[in-house]
Amino acid sequence: MKLSQKQKLSIDSYLNDDNFFTLLSGAIRSGKSYPAVLMFMIYTQMQGSQYKNIIAGRNLRIMEVELLQTIEDFITGLGGSYRYFSTKGIIVANGVEYLVVAGHNNDSRKRIQSMTAGCALIDEIQLTPEDFVQQVIARLSFSFSKLLGTCNPEGKKHWLKVDYIDTQRADNYHEFLLSDNPTLSDKVIERYNNLFDGVFHQRNILGKWVQSEGCIYTKYTTKKVSIDPRQVHFNDIGIDYGIKGITSYQKLTYLKTGEVIMSRTYRYNGADGIKTDSELVDDLIDFMGDDKYNVVWIDPSASSFIAELRKRGLSVRIKEADNKVLPGIKSVMNGFISEKLIIAATKENQPLLDELSVYAWQDGDIDKPIKKDDHHCDALRYAYYGRNKNYNKRTIRLPAGL
To answer: Which fold has domain 221-390?
Structure first.
């Protein structure tokens, strides 16, 4: 089967680089499993029959249908010998032995407690318990030993993300997208792109580690947008102001079709060096360019910035935003759910998408968002709620108590 460049790169780095933990992470159907089988079988076959190896996953039945079938096809396709002793949970391929283990099965896990293994492959490693992975690592004690895992992203606080990816203990990390799977046509990729919204689009399609539990905006639409200036009704801007923190400008483009496009994002971090109000207004003027704007909705606590804006005499109305948090969230949520509010899929808007993926309720309290990483979300809320609060009377389902 033809391999993509990402698949070739991951195989080459696993086989030739001095690494211990190789992790193939990314979107669903992005072509991670096939190169994982190739690199693992090639490497372990090279080490010889004197070493036993581990093949693990969450569920034995799923492994037999998918992973083990791929291994059999690879070995026999090269004219090799392959036998799977299902009652013993052992594969013998060209004389090399592989112990097949289900990570969630206590009896199965006991089988590796006293063994010394050459290498290990853990399929869907994010779905296996962390203590099981640690147990597997403890078995890999040869100088050539390697751990290989495949996974689909979970939340940002998942043990695999926190303890292995963020710390670079997964020292050979590769991220896969749908386009890295050469068996998928453009039509199929487009179909998958349209299957998910919001957080689950970020995870399953973009391969991002983002949380869903407690997340406020679980559904939102991002897509590539080409805005015809003739279809633009007007533009608004929402501003969240920070002296030492983040200052955010969010541009909302209202189309004559009724759609509202979250079209552009500005971000400045005061931690990189504090800008004066005058400098921030200069940035705003550059951000606005030659487009026509109706209203700038601004954080009502930003009194000095508001004064600077009014002093400049910009040809746009300046309004202090209504800072009612829950009604504002409901308004934005309503826009997302109805797909009236759409986020343009651009690199410039990535800071907003990053925040949306972690913008969550406080633990045990769905009346209060966590006051962290919320600057772009607040700027969006100021502008959208300010414009639409009198036009969002339709009731939408929210968690009890909101």
So the answer is: Nucleotidyltransferase; domain 5 (3.30.420)
Cβ neighbour number for residue 400 with a 10 Å cutoff:
6
Provide the pairing of β-strand 260-269 with 246-255: antiparallel
CA–CA separation, 311 and 322 (whole Å):
22
Using one digit for the tens of pLDDT, what is the confidence trace for 296-348? 999 888 999 999 998 988 888 999 999 889 889 989 988 998 889 999 999 99
Domain boundaries, the chain: 5-191, 221-390
Buried b (16+ CB within 10 A) or exposed e, 226-248: eeeeeebeebbbbbbbbeeebbb
**Residues whose CB is less than 8 angstroms from the CB of residue 132 and which lie 6 or more positions away in sequence, other chains included:** 56, 103, 104, 109
How far is it, in rounded angstroms, from Cα 306 to Cα 318?
8
- Please answer whether residues 365 and 216 qualify as being in contact, where contact means their C-beta atoms are separated by less than 8 angstroms: no
Contact 377, 215 (CB under 8 A): no
What are the CA-CA distances from residue 31 to residues 3, 173, 182 (Å)?
9, 15, 8
Q: What is the number of residues in the chain? A: 402
Crossing angle of helices 375-388/325-337, nearest 10°? 80
Nearest by Cα to 222 from 339, 328, 330: 339
For tokens 């026999």, the residue is 76
Q: Say if pTM beats, i.e. exceeds, 0.85.
A: no
CATH H-level, domain 5-191: superfamily: P-loop containing nucleotide triphosphate hydrolases (3.40.50.300)
